[in-house]
Design brief:
The complex is a heterodimer of chains A (112) and B (117). Chain A is 0% helix and 54% strand. Chain A is an all-beta fold and 112 residues long. In chain A, the strands form 2 sheets. In chain A, strands 2, 4, 5, 6, 9, 10 and 11 form a 7-stranded mixed sheet that branches. With 117 residues, chain B is mainly beta. In chain B, a hairpin with a 2-residue loop joins strand 10 and strand 11. Chain B is globular and about 45 Å long. The N and C termini of chain B lie far apart (41 Å). Classes of the chains: A mainly beta (112), B mainly beta (117). Chains A and B meet through strand 4, strand 5, strand 9 and strand 10 of A and strand 5, strand 6, strand 10 and strand 11 of B.
């Protein structure tokens, strides 16, 4: 158990819908990261937050957004969902950005 | 842009065989970090090891060992006396510096290891 929690574990929804994925980092970790794992794209970095502020953006679609709250938990919002958004979404956390990232169990999203 | 290449898509071995997973990386950073993660069939990503670019010492942890060679930009992972529980997808990753306080992991495509009893 990495200490990073993600909810829900599974999510099934329809095209056009909006969902929110939640992540609680390890105790003491200030940096949170979101990654997407899909069969065709592999594991891709989406976005990084550090102590509540957005720090880095990767291949994140405009339909996706995220935030990190004062208690350091983070949410990833996915809207206008398409079939191709079906993937495993991971949250990771680290104490500082250069430190080891520990991953949560992931949220498996299926868009029908 | 940084890149990680895991040329071996899938490896199948029989229990107790030794197996080496290859990882080659490209980066322009002078300071960088390399990682190996394991993804068992249950799906989670488990951290195995982190190596700093300025520390080329090889590391051994039980049946696992890692060989970091900066001259060839490689960070290979060897499992000695493999076991069925080692069956998983293994990812090599490079920590990319995007600016002060800005970091991301660039992952290889993964190597699926199947250990047959």
């Amino acid at each position: 158990d990495s200490g990073v929690t993600q909810t829900p574990k599974h999510l099934i929804t329809a095209t056009g819908q909006r969902v929110t994925l939640r992540c609680s980092p390890r105790s003491g970790d200030l940096s949170v990261y979101w990654y997407q794992q899909s069969l065709d794209q592999g594991l891709q970095f989406l976005i990084q937050y550090y102590n509540g502020e957005e720090r880095a953006k990767g291949n994140i679609l405009e339909r996706f957004s995220a935030q990190q709250f004062p208690d350091l938990h983070s949410e990833l919002n996915l809207s206008s969902l398409e079939l191709g958004d079906s993937a495993l979404y991971f949250c990771a956390s680290s104490v500082y950005p250069q430190e080891t990232q520990y991953f949560g169990p992931g949220t498996r999203l299926l868009v029908l | 842009a940084q890149k990680v290449t895991q040329a071996q898509t899938e490896i199948s071995v029989v229990e107790k065989e030794d197996v080496t997973l290859d990882c080659v990386y490209e980066t322009r950073d002078t300071t960088y970090y390399l990682f190996w993660y394991k993804q068992p069939p249950s799906g989670e990503l488990v951290f195995l090891i982190r190596r700093n670019s300025f520390d080329e010492q090889n590391e051994i942890s039980g049946r696992y060992s890692w060989n970091f060679q900066k001259s060839t930009s490689s960070f290979n992972f060897t499992i000695t006396a493999s076991q069925v529980v080692d069956s998983a997808v293994y990812f090599c990753a490079l920590s990319e510096a995007l600016g002060t306080g800005r970091r991301a992991l660039t992952f290889g495509s993964g190597t699926r290891l199947q250990v047959q009893p």
